[in-house]
Design brief:
Elements lengths: L7 E9 L7 E9 L11 E2 L11 E6 L9 E5 L4 E5 L14 E9 L1
Antiparallel strand pairs: 1-2, 2-7, 3-6, 4-7, 5-6
Length: 109
């Protein structure tokens, strides 16, 4: 099994926020894993361009939590990675093979 290195997404909607010029908000569904490839310890790298942002991601609001497998998603702004945690706030290990759709609202520039 290889480590998850990419994931699919579908863009549901996008809008420019009037209150904050230059900031856009996109609602997307991310497909995390395929049930075969393993989760990479340290998280899944995500950049703004992958989900339609021009430059960078400011924040992610996860609408589905927990996801399949009972994992809780989080976004680390400093590293630009989506991370999956157990209910005890412990990152899952690289031996696990998630396969879940994750709806979220992404804000960025």
């Amino acid at each position: 099994m290889a480590a998850i290195s990419s994931y699919g997404y579908s863009n549901i909607s996008r809008r420019i926020l009037d209150a904050a010029p230059g900031i856009q908000e996109t609602t997307v569904t991310l497909q995390i894993g395929n049930g075969v490839d393993t989760y990479p310890t340290g998280g899944l790298a995500l950049n703004g361009g992958q989900i339609g942002m021009v430059n960078s991601i400011e924040s992610i609001i996860f609408l589905d939590s927990p996801i399949a497998g009972g994992y809780f998603p989080g976004y680390n702004v400093a590293t630009g990675k989506i991370m999956l945690y157990t209910s005890g706030a412990v990152e899952i290990s690289n031996a696990l093979t998630p396969n879940a759709s994750l709806r979220c609202i992404v804000r960025g520039y």
